[in-house]
């Protein structure tokens, strides 16, 4: 776990036992949109180190269930309503993997995933768009009717095309920047609700 000194969200995360400050982005999103409810089944893509899993676990409660997937290994959270897997969410085997285990469908798909950045703004925005597009492709295959998607993107020239694609599948699509996002960051979240196929 790494925390920046003098970052109030990092300090708060450490005090409350969360693995990363990013959990407070989920808290902000939940306050604004209220997409997570007790008893829901949730898929968290790109979930290492696990703070969104911790937050989602609390919000869906004991009757809910959260599946977390990441390329990196996720250290055991010791939460009874959370299962984690190390896997590439963009590989062909991923959707069958979820279906074979009886996880599909989900009420909510979350993703705070970011690509490995290069430091080149345009390139990083392009990589973020590719990853978010992949998350959207997964979401439309695993969501229940009226389900919700929350996915991080680095705002750039390709953002409008991603929003347009999302609007083909969701009746409510908007973007939101949580207070807990780093001020200098170009990250925003695409929030898509009322999934329809």
UniProtKB/TrEMBL annotation:
Residues 18-195 form the Ribosomal RNA methyltransferase FtsJ domain. It comes from the Bacteria. HAMAP family: RNA_methyltr_E (MF_01547). GO terms for cellular component: cytoplasm. PANTHER family: RIBOSOMAL RNA METHYLTRANSFERASE, RRNA METHYLTRANSFERASE 2, MITOCHONDRIAL. Belongs to the class I-like SAM-binding methyltransferase superfamily. RNA methyltransferase RlmE family. This is Ribosomal RNA large subunit methyltransferase E. It catalyses: uridine(2552) in 23S rRNA + S-adenosyl-L-methionine = 2'-O-methyluridine(2552) in 23S rRNA + S-adenosyl-L-homocysteine + H(+). Keywords: Cytoplasm, Methyltransferase, rRNA processing, S-adenosyl-L-methionine, Transferase. The active site is at residue 152. Gene3D superfamilies: Vaccinia Virus protein VP39. Its main location: cytoplasm. S-adenosyl-L-methionine binds at residues 50, 52, 70, 88, 112. Coiled coil: none annotated. Transmembrane segments: none annotated. SUPFAM superfamilies: S-adenosyl-L-methionine-dependent methyltransferases. It is found in: Cytoplasm. InterPro entries: RNA_methyltr_RlmE (IPR050082), RNA_MeTrfase_FtsJ_dom (IPR002877), rRNA-MeTfrase_E (IPR015507), SAM-dependent_MTases_sf (IPR029063). Its EC number is 2.1.1.166. Specifically methylates the uridine in position 2552 of 23S rRNA at the 2'-O position of the ribose in the fully assembled 50S ribosomal subunit. GO terms for molecular function: rRNA (uridine-2'-O-)-methyltransferase activity. Pfam families: FtsJ (PF01728).
